Amino acid sequence: MLAGMRDPGQPRVQVSEPGQDATPPAATAAGPAPAGLFIVERRLPKISRPQLAVLQAALASAASRFSACGDGVRLLGSIFLARQERLLSLFIADSPDAVRAVSEASLVPFASIEPAVELPGQAQP
Q: Which domains does the chain have, with CATH numbers?
């Protein structure tokens, strides 16, 4: 495919400005939109490894509670960028609102919630 052109079968990705949520394409008449990936960014200056472990446990616990209630959200994992003091948490969810609810319930402040697109890695033999 030529640069700058997108496959019409692929969903259009929306990017939001910091502090704003980007909402994935709305549900169609055929049914609800499928669950999507979302990245939650947190800025955590001067956080220690034990504090990160507690924070991740709080996120996992909140996500589990919401998932058990059928809220359509699951925490896939997080990556901490130590030099930038940022934690990026990856969720699969029905909506950014579900991710926001989990993030608020965990009591861990966040900077943004963004839709994400998974890109394949190198195939394993």
A: 36-116 (3.30.70.3090)
